[in-house]
Amino acid sequence: RLMVANPEPDVAYGLITLTNGHQVKATTVTVPGTTYRAWAAPVPDGQTIAAVDQYDDHHHRLTHDTNWH
Q1: Which of 5, 6, 48, 54 is at 20 to 30 A from 61, Cα to Cα?
Q2: What is the pLDDT of residue 52?
Q3: How far is residue 47's CA from residue 49's CA, in Å, rounded to a whole number?
Q4: 53 contacts 67 by C-beta, under 8 angstroms
Q5: pLDDT attached to residue 68
Q6: Torsion angle of alpha carbons 16, 29, 5, 52, nearest 10°?
Q7: What is the CA radius of gyration of the chain?
Q8: Which pLDDT tens digit goes with each residue over 16-68?
Q9: pLDDT for position 36
Q10: How far apart are the first and last CA of the chain?
Q11: Is residue 43 within 8 Å of residue 3, measured between CB atoms?
Q12: Rounded to an integer, what distance in angstroms lies between the CA atom of residue 28 and that of residue 36?
């Protein structure tokens, strides 16, 4: 499984926190030849997302979403 986000322009990376406390970081990239930006992170089988945070280049948290039930 993948968590895929289409972030705002100032988002440098996403950080997924799983319910077991493990975190997965994914860097925002631009699809070559387009203006489409995204980040994608694997979600291991049997794991559930507890929170998704997005950060800027200075590591300031821009978003915090816990609505993953």
Answers
A1: 48
A2: 97
A3: 7
A4: no
A5: 76
A6: 20
A7: 12
A8: 999 999 999 999 999 999 999 999 999 999 999 999 999 999 999 999 999 97
A9: 95
A10: 16
A11: yes
A12: 10
Q: Which of 11, 20, 6 is nearest to 59 (CA)?
A: 11
What mean pLDDT do residues 1-9 have?
94
Query: Between the CA of residue 1 and those of 8, 12, 15, 34, 39, what are the distances in Å?
Result: 23, 22, 16, 25, 14
Note the pLDDT of residue 69: 61
Amino acid making up residue 40: A
The whole-angstrom separation of Cα 16 and Cα 33 is 28
By the 8 A CB rule, do 2 and 12 touch?
A: no
- Read off the tokens for 52: 């998704």
Six-digit token pair at 68? 């993953």
β-strand pairing of 13-18 with 49-55: antiparallel
Residues in the chain, total: 69
